[in-house]
Each structure stands twice: as C-alpha cells, then as structure tokens.
Amino acid sequence: MLILDCPCCGVSGEETEFHAGGEAHLKRFGPGSSDAEFHDYLFTKENPKGVHLERWRHANGCGKWFLAARDTMTLEVYGTYSAQTTEPPQDIKDKISAKRPGWSWREFS
Amino acid sequence: MSDAKSALPGARYEGFVKLREMGLQGMITLRGDLASAKLAAAVQTATGTAVPGQRQIVTEGDRAAAWMSPDELLLLVPYAEVADIIAAIETALAGEHFLAVNVSDARAMFRLEGALCRDAMAKLSPVDFSEAAFCPGDFRRSRMAQIAAAMWMPDGQSLQVICFRSVAQYAFDLLSAAAAPGSEPRLYG
Q1: Angstroms from A61 CA to nearest CA on chain B
Q2: pLDDT over 70, % of chain A
Q3: What is the pLDDT of residues A6-38, one digit of tens each?
Q4: Are A85 and A67 contacting, i.e. CB atoms less than 8 angstroms apart?
Q5: C-alpha–C-alpha distance, residues B151 and A2, integer Å
Q6: Nearest CA to CA, how far is B145 from chain A (Å)?
Q7: What is the mean predicted confidence (pLDDT) over B161-168?
Q8: Quick check: A64 and B141 CB within 8 A?
Q9: pLDDT tens profile A75-90
Q10: pLDDT at B144
C-alpha cells in the first residue's frame, strides 16, 4: 500500500484514492514522426525494479494529475511533484540519490 | 414545471447514528481562478461567505462554499434560488474564464447525526477522521467504498456527505450498514 501526498490539494491519501497513469515525462511522437519513434512512444515503456517516475491522478479527490517518484522494489515514495514539469525537482532527485546512489531513469540521474 | 424530487425523498435509518437523506439541495459547481477578486465577490454575493481555503468549507446560514480542487468550488444554496444565483455569477464574472453549472439534481446529500458519526464514516472511507485531522470547517473529497464522496462536519456531532445521485441508493445502503446497531468500531468515541 502506497501513501501518496497530492501536491494539488495537499491530501495525504492512501493508494485507493488515486489512480496510476503510467510512465511520467513521456516525450510524445505524433504526426510527422517515424514509425519506429511512434512505436517506441506507444509501447516501449520503462519497467524498472527500483526507482520509477510515474503519473498519478487523484481520482477520488481533487481530480488532478501529478507525478510521483517511487521505488517499485521497496514501495518507498521519494516524493510527488507537479505534472507541469519536464524533469523531477532537484530535492526529489537528491532524496533518491541518498537512498539509491548512482540511480538513473531514462535521461535523469 | 416538473415536480423536482431528491434522490431518496425522506429516506431514514436509525442505528448507532441517525442517517437521513437531506432532500433537495441547491448545488452549483463554480470553476475558475480562485484567487480572482471578481470570483471572490461573486461567491460573497451567492453564499455570503469568503472563498474557502484549501480543503475547507465556509458556512453562512443555509449557504456554504466548499473547496473542491485548486480551481473548483461547490456552492450550497437554497434549491429554488439556483437559477438566479447562476445568472448573477454569470453577470459578475463576464469576461473571465469560468464555469458555473447547476448540479443540484446530479447529486445526493446525506447526514449522519450522533456522537459516533466519525466511527460510522471511518468504516467506509480511507480518511483519518480523528479530531486532530478532521473537524468542523474541513472538507474532504475521497471515496466511500466504491464511490466518490465529499464530506464535512457541520458541527462536532454530525457529518454530511455528498455523492452522485446515480449512486444514492448504494450510498444509503452503505451508510445504513455502517451505522448498524452493535457494529460501533469505537475508534474515535
């Protein structure tokens, strides 16, 4: 069971109040991209054992989307942050680095 | 005009807390920039209250304004006045980016009364209902078993719940079962 803090409404809620929305920080490839790029955008997702960045929605709550950094192995939540960002905030990166030195996730580390 | 009826008119249950359906209640969803002075003035005119802070509800007589999300309020007003109030909001906010919708007939409202109302609600929602975390003035959206619900405490002895009208019977059955005599969890009282 995860306890997530919604950065939009400030609720510290348990997992069943939220809905997971897949990988965070997706770079979209739409019209004009190659078939290979579009395929990878649709189907090639990160599935790490360890640090993972995900989208979540506060479905039974304020209804807003946000992003979460968590660990798929220990279920520790490193932090949640605004969906209106292109990379995790430095303080969350620092928290992950403290627990998992040398971590990386796509282009972030 | 058609004869408006609430979801479960007069539905009641008496267990270790009293449960009743609240009847027709005017509700307006107001979305927009909650920091805007124009919106604050429109809320003041509609409900006689200020714009509530994050996860708060402010009450004035038979009216209230509740914080639903960073860009959404729920205004509770007398059922018969909803159309006039929406017209006034639309005039006051002309030119702003906003939305005011009558959701009165899309919702159902229930009230739990009794010293153990926190205990009954705690069976259904993953929310900390202790006095330290939830007290009159707080407004919490969460779930009640399988359905979305919003709750607040009008006073220390009662708890009010709003859910979608389409699940009103389910909500009433849930709350009745949670209030069944002899099933008090006594977490909080």
Answers
A1: 5
A2: 100
A3: 999 999 999 999 999 999 999 999 999 999 999
A4: yes
A5: 23
A6: 10
A7: 98
A8: no
A9: 999 999 999 999 999 9
A10: 97
ipTM score of the complex? Answer: 0.91
Question: Residues B43-91: pLDDT tens digits?
Answer: 999 999 999 999 999 999 999 999 999 999 999 999 999 999 999 999 9
Tokens standing for A38? 């579009």
**pLDDT confidence of residue B153:** 97
Helices B82-92 + B37-47 axis angle, to 10:
160
Chain A residue closest to B143 (CA)? Answer: A60
The CATH fold assigned to B19-178 is: Gyrase A; domain 2 (3.30.1360)
Question: Which of A:5-44 have CB within 8 Å of B?
Answer: 8-11, 13-14, 16-17
Does B111 contact A at CB distance below 8 Å? no
The maximal CA–CA distance of chain A, rounded, in angstroms, is 42
Structural fold of domain A3-99:
Folate-binding fold (3.30.2270)
Question: What residues of chain A lie within 8 A of the CB of B70, using their CB?
Answer: 8-9, 62, 64
Helices and strands of chain A, counted as H and E runs: 2, 6
Chain B CB contacts of A63 under 8 Å are: 69
Reported in sequence order, the residue ranges of chain B that DSSP labels E, i.e. its strands, are 12-14, 18-21, 26-31, 57-60, 63-69, 72-77, 99-102, 107-113, 139-144, 147-155, 158-164
- Residue to mutate among A1, A2, A5, A9, with most B CBs inside 10 A, is A9
